[in-house]
């Protein structure tokens, strides 16, 4: 098989050039920021919950697993359903689940209530990501990598802001101050209601025009299945490693370097800020040089830095965490757009599958690594996960399915 050929071909009825719908792309990115800001509060307050509820690392991992599983298991189902029946205002409903989960976490007086709050926030995420990813693609004007990066950077920026706000609000004022962030959820619901109105009008406009011929993949089903499996393994590598940082980096810094809780949150913010910056890079570069090359560099290229991290002092730990976050984050946008090009016409299903897998691997990683940390030490965890990016070697077996831009 000639792997240099485009993966699919289509014969559009009308040859119009669409432009990027910047206001909608900006709105969905800001909504992603607000959504993930709320979600990132959970791992950011783990040190507080660990002390208040006397949790061990295994119980902390189970909290993350509960959140990630409710998000990951539902997302492919939501995406598949909305591929057939798009739901423009489901984004508002999903944010409503997140709001309820947020309030539950703020008032929880027992570990089961913490699990319930985490599950509700995960349910909100399961609705938000597939449909918002579809909106980003619809507003892309054909620049899918750029649109996905803009969308993703909002989420990663929100994830970075969560620990920073936790350090200055939740740590000083306690668990109940989480409820103050309900204002953030309400703001997101207002923005998403207006996005839903545009989405509904866009769907009506598309239905009123002649449809383009369906895109047809020239790769065999077996080749597509193998490629999707490889992409899923790459996401596993990326998110399993990222889980070690997002869930346990604060504990690692406090244990190895004796930094304070507040300072550890700032170091986590720096890492997550680098993740946000890296997300911006991956999509546009993938549009130009090809997403396969971006995946190569992002996953495998980070290996030397992850191997060095467990043996670095505090200064170089901070520097290496920035490099790792910057490089590793550029992978997801490229992987997601590459996957949608492998399976054209199934944006919701693919987005749900890969966002769901991303959350699921993060949750599984947090649970497994928490148990491992209890049995050994948090330092041992970082030595073991440092080898995960070697899975990036599998990128060699991905077909070249895209034409690059000049």
Automatic annotation (TrEMBL):
Signal peptide: none annotated. It comes from the Bacteria. Residues 24-404 form the Major facilitator superfamily (MFS) profile domain. The chain crosses the membrane at residues 57-77, 89-105, 111-129, 150-171, 177-199, 230-254, 266-286, 293-312, 318-338, 350-369, 381-398. It holds the Pfam family MFS_1. The keyword Transmembrane helix applies. GO terms for molecular function: transmembrane transporter activity. Keywords: Membrane, Transmembrane, Transmembrane helix. GO terms for cellular component: plasma membrane. PROSITE patterns: MFS. PANTHER family: FOSMIDOMYCIN RESISTANCE PROTEIN. This is MFS transporter, FSR family, fosmidomycin resistance protein. It comes from Microvirga guangxiensis. The lineage of its organism: Bacteria, Pseudomonadati, Pseudomonadota, Alphaproteobacteria, Hyphomicrobiales.
């Amino acid at each position: 098989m000639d792997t240099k050929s485009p993966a699919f071909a289509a014969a559009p009825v009308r040859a119009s050039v669409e432009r990027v719908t910047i206001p909608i792309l900006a709105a969905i990115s800001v909504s992603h920021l607000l959504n993930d800001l709320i979600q990132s509060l959970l791992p950011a307050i783990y040190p507080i919950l660990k002390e208040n509820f006397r949790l061990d690392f295994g119980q902390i991992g189970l909290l993350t697993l509960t959140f990630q599983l409710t998000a990951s298991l539902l997302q492919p189902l939501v995406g598949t359903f909305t591929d057939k029946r798009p739901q423009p205002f489901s984004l508002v409903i999903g944010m409503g689940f997140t709001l309820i989960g947020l309030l539950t976490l703020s008032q929880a007086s027992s570990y089961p209530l913490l699990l319930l709050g985490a599950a509700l926030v995960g349910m909100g995420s399961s609705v938000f990501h597939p449909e918002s990813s579809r909106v980003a693609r619809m507003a892309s004007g054909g620049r899918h990598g750029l649109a996905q990066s803009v969308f993703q950077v909002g989420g990663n920026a929100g994830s970075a802001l969560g620990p920073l706000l936790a350090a200055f609000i939740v740590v000083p004022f306690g668990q109940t101050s989480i409820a103050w962030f309900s204002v953030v959820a309400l703001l997101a619901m207002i923005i998403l209601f207006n996005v839903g109105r545009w989405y509904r009008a866009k769907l009506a406009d598309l239905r009123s025009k002649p449809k383009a011929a369906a895109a047809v993949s020239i790769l065999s089903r077996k080749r597509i299945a193998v490629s999707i499996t490889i992409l899923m393994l790459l996401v596993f590598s990326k998110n399993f490693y990222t889980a070690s940082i997002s869930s346990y980096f604060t504990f690692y810094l406090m244990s190895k370097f004796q930094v304070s809780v507040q300072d550890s949150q700032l170091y986590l913010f720096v890492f997550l800020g680098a993740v946000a910056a890296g997300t911006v890079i991956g999509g546009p570069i993938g549009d130009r040089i090809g997403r396969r090359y971006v995946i190569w560099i992002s996953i495998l290229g980070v290996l030397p830095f992850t191997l060095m991290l467990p043996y670095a002092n505090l200064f170089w730990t901070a520097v290496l965490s920035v490099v790792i976050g910057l490089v590793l984050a550029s992978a997801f946008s490229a992987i997601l757009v590459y996957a949608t090009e492998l399976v054209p016409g199934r944006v919701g299903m693919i987005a749900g599958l890969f966002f769901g897998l991303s959350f699921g691997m993060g949750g599984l990683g947090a649970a497994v690594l928490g148990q491992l940390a209890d049995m050994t030490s948090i330092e041992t965890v970082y030595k073991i996960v440092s080898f995960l990016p070697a899975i990036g070697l599998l990128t060699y077996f991905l077909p070249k399915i895209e034409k690059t831009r000049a």
